[in-house]
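Review form for a predicted model. The reviewer records the input and the model, then writes brief findings.
Reviewer: anonymous (R2)
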Amino acid sequence: MRRVVSLYLPTWPTDRIRRRFGEPPRDKPLVTVSATGSRRLIAAVDATADGLGLRIGMPLAQAQALVPDLHVCDATPDDDETSLRQLACWAIRYSPVVAPDPPDGLWIDIAGADHLLGGEEALLADLTTRLGDRGIAARAAVADAPGAAWGVARYGKGCVVPSGRTVDAVAPLPVAALRLSSETLNAMHRLGIERVGQLAAMPRAPMVRRFGKEVALRLDQAMGHVFEPISPLIPHETAIATLTFAEPIARLEDLKQVVRRLSQDLCRTLTQRGEGIRRLDLVIRRVDEKGASLRVGTAKATRDHVHLARLFDERLPTIDPGFGIEEVALIASRTELLVEQQTEVPGIAQDDTVDADISRLVDRLGARVGAHRVYRIAPVPTLVPERMARKISPLAPPTGSVWPETLLRPTRLLDPPEPVVATALLPDHPPAFFIWRRLRHKVHKADGPERITPEWWNGDKRAAPRDYYRVETDQGGRFWIFRDAPADQGGRWWLHGLFE
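Model under review:
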């Protein structure tokens, strides 16, 4: 299923000027102007100028009369487009299929790549946050069709259009969301056509006679009825291996053979450069101009073409060949220097103490379940249970931290702790029984309390100390229970772990 992100940069020219020159401050209005004959008209406005009522196309003299302290720069559309291409190259980190959408946007086809960042919402949040940290205002939306994503990003309220709900998402948008000319939009407004749904409800033949074929095409593209291709931008320095077929292929076995051949060709090129692959993209083009892409990553740089090809094996069945695939490209979208190292000496046995290389295992697991789900657990020097472990890279060097051998902790920790109803015979005694998940447990044996105090240096200034008890029920279950305050202060009971 195709999923396309439309990235909208509403103040791209002014944001680019601020990033380049470092001025004026963001609370000062900034516009760019272009010459049209003897007139100077506003070509772009920033958010502050827009809030003061300045609009694109307004004469500069009128704008300066409204805002005397207005900052003015000459419009440079060629530089804006060049910078937009550079931004598209930066966005390849999210997907191999990225293309500029001048003058103020990007296309990103994230089908097969969104899982690497935890899903579509997480990807959009990461994308807009990174741009915001760089001083670039951005909005983004994802949908099945590029036209739908374009309209929702600029005129919609949500950011993710569920798959199969394109028509419902586009219908309430204004007709300006169809990427039409100003003359066509003015004609529609004169006839009272304000929403895409109104236009879609009109008979097709009269609509085409009145507004032209372009309106029908844009409407079908926004609704997802017509395929709209995206030509990916590939930086010149990127290593790529492609294969075009005289006769389209469709069998999975053939596609696997092609990937292996391209992987070998690509690794041969990277050997000459002295580089290894860290991120690999597979892009296919079908005979109907539709495409698909897959992305895999490696834990460390490698040029093992057999290993790289195998990373795609479990995900190649997700590609729909349609009526046939006529072109396949393998792109090394991220590489690192890879220095040749001697790994063994003939005739001399290897030392058993040398750590095994698990990078290939990490790559296979990452390709299967997602790279963000493959990690190691490292100890943290603290006694607060929920802070005693943290996730680190599976190939990270040893941290040197260890848990105390005498520290008794449950094998399963509940995060967050779950409340229980418990009764203790005396204030400082363990509970005589407790109710958890609607089941009553009678305590047969108990050990404690173990008091764990809050860590003020980690922001636990208002947290209460906890008294933990290890309890065993008459049914043999072993639990880790704590009370978050003394009984005379209204402390509550919580179940934090299970000894299994």
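Findings: The mean pLDDT is 86.
Further findings: The longest helix spans residues 252-273.
Recommendation: see findings above.
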